[in-house]
Amino acid sequence: HSSSAFHSRLCKLTPMRSLARKTVLVPLAGAAIYLALCAYLYAEQDSLALPGASLGLPAQERPGVETLWITLPDGTRLRGGRAAPPAGERATGGSVIYYGGNAEDATAILPALARATGRAAVAYNYRGFAGSEGEPSLERFEEDAVEVYRQVSRNGSPVAIVGRSVGTGAALAAAAAAGEELAHLSLVSPY
To answer: Is there a contact between 138 and 49 (Cβ–Cβ < 8 Å)?
Structure first.
């Protein structure tokens, strides 16, 4: 008879133990999924923030754009371009650097930008984009933008900066490095 009493008490406790287990296991499983998602996002941040490189955009020659190469301190070469303002148009002197958006060949806008600003328009394609060497990297994204600014501004003429979309982050990094030397900053559809 004592065996059936024990069994009766055990049956009453089993649902409680199952509930206690679920109370512990469900949050642990949720935390594990959350940590796995965070690890994935951290590991893939470059490709998630700069997915345009995976599109394999070809480097294109553009009318009115002189191809130029910017060599970074680590030896990586970025493909870019330069367009002068049209002859006879107002020329304000200096340069404007365009930091393009994701999945764009930044040199495409240069003739229009030179015409609109009266400045020599310069742009480069980020690492791994449209003919530039290297792999996309958020870590180097801003460093590269600052180096491009330094190289363009070497001659001492005024430099304006335009950034679009993801390029606004690069433009802000270059503007911060330029400080009061910067002639103008425009951010188009900042992220």
So the answer is: yes
Q: What is the pLDDT of residue 48?
A: 57
For the stretch 40-99, pLDDT in tens is: 777 766 665 665 555 555 566 667 889 999 999 999 999 999 999 887 666 677 899 999
On whether the CB atoms of residues 118 and 92 are closer than 8 A, the answer is yes
Whether residue 103 is predicted with pLDDT greater than 80 in this model: the reply is: no
CA nearest neighbour of 187 among 103, 117, 92, 100: 100
Query: Order of strands, edge to edge, in the sheet holding 95-99?
Result: 66-71, 77-83, 120-124, 95-99, 159-164, 182-188
Q: For residue 82, give the 3-state DSSP assignment.
A: strand
Sign for the pseudo-dihedral over CA of 38, 44, 45, 49: negative
Widest pairwise Cα distance in the chain: 110
Query: Is the separation of the CB atoms in 138 and 46 below 8 Å?
Result: yes
The closest alpha carbon to 164, from 84, 81, 95, 97, belongs to: 97
